[in-house]
Amino acid sequence: MKELKDFFKKCFSSILINSLKLPDDDKQIEVLADKFLFYLSELKKWNKAYNLTSIEDEKEIIVKHFIDSLLYLCFISENPLSIADIGTGAGFPGIPIAIVRPRAKITLIEPSWKKNAFLKNIKRKLELENIEIIKAKAEEIHNKFDIVISRALWSIKDFIKHCNHLLKKEGYFLISKSLKIDEEIQNLPERYNIEIREFELPDINSSQIGGKRYIIKIEKCES
């Protein structure tokens, strides 16, 4: 467990503190590490029966689920924003964001009852009061949010199509991509502004590199 905690803290420090300017507080990082490792243990335990993720290696989960999810923070301030995570699955990226941004109000939207059961378990055990869980598809939700996020659930164009009704007037979309973003962006209508942040995920081991990630902010033009 100590090796995993040290690995998480190293990843958190190298990517998130350096790239996203999160506070470099040893005590706070220790608390966060404990929460994320508990999340990891619950994910592995439930995954045996509920098929929550195809990734089984613990370090790979830390990099490709936890750290990858926290990259969204490059466009999420510490203000008390309302955020909808569409098709959250096992809680990515919504739960990692909720852990690090306790003032944000995160709504996890997921149609699978099995995944909803897991999300409720994590919310209860980690005492995440800033999370709401809704068993539904995006099209069935009528609330409005400051930010609507998703993690490679659709193409960018389809993401906007399915979720445009969820966005407040001054709100914006966030989506994570690793490939073909130029092609997808070219297919967007001109009325949208695009801002992109590029990251290099930490290497998992000597033979497996983390890879590139692009966090894309999409908002309507004011015209």
From TrEMBL:
Question: A Gene Ontology molecular-function term?
Answer: rRNA (guanine-N7-)-methyltransferase activity
Q: Which UniProt keywords apply?
A: Cytoplasm, Methyltransferase, rRNA processing, S-adenosyl-L-methionine, Transferase
Identify the enzyme class.
transferase
User: What CDD domains does the annotation carry?
Assistant: AdoMet_MTases
Localization terms from the record = Cytoplasm
> Which EC number(s) does UniProt give?
2.1.1.-
Q: Which GO terms describe its cellular component?
A: cytosol
This protein's source sits in the domain of life called Bacteria
Give the binding site residues for S-adenosyl-L-methionine. G87, F92, E110, P111, S112, A138, E139, R151
Coiled coil regions in record: none
* Primary role: Specifically methylates the N7 position of a guanine in 16S rRNA.
Q: Which family does it belong to?
A: Belongs to the methyltransferase superfamily. RNA methyltransferase RsmG family.
Query: Could you identify this protein by its name?
Result: Ribosomal RNA small subunit methyltransferase G
Supply the gene name.
Answer: gidB
